[in-house]
Amino acid sequence: MTNPYLERRAKHAIGKSGRASEQRLARQLKAKARPASGAMEGAKGDIDLGAVLMEAKSTTALSMGLKLEWLAKISREARQEGKSPALMISFVTPDGNPVVDGEWVAVPRHVWEDSVG
């Protein structure tokens, strides 16, 4: 017998280092972490920074593939809330702390151009 909740959770599982990284980011950015890491209806994205809705991806590996799907998802969700989208990419230690030069933020070109004006 299978448990649908556990199957869903395993599909979208965020590891211990990922949870720790999201909590640390929200705290450091003085932002609100979204419940269930953005999996709840009406509370999408991972971190709410007011004018910016951020998706957070982290890995303990030395590389990470970037998916257009991640960028399109956070763009769509941010647009629905009238916010700018951002993707935080973190290379972290197993306890969720970033390695040196291991944190980057990706934003759409129009957002970046507005910021460097």
How would you characterize this protein structure?
- With 117 residues, the chain is of the alpha+beta class.
- It is built from 4 helices and 5 strands; from the N terminus they run ααβββαββα.
- The longest helix is centred in the middle third of the chain and has 14 residues.
- The termini are far apart.
Number of helices: 4
Q: What is the overall pLDDT average?
A: 85
The SSE string, one letter per element, is HHEEEHEEH
- Classification by helices and strands: alpha+beta
* First-residue to last-residue Cα separation: 58 Å
Spatial arrangement of strands, main beta sheet: 1-2-3-4-5
Q: What is the molecular shape?
A: globular
Q: Name the poorly predicted regions.
A: none
> Helicity level, as a percent range?
25-40%
Which characteristics define this entry?
117 residues, alpha+beta, 5-stranded mixed sheet, 4 helices, 37% helix, globular
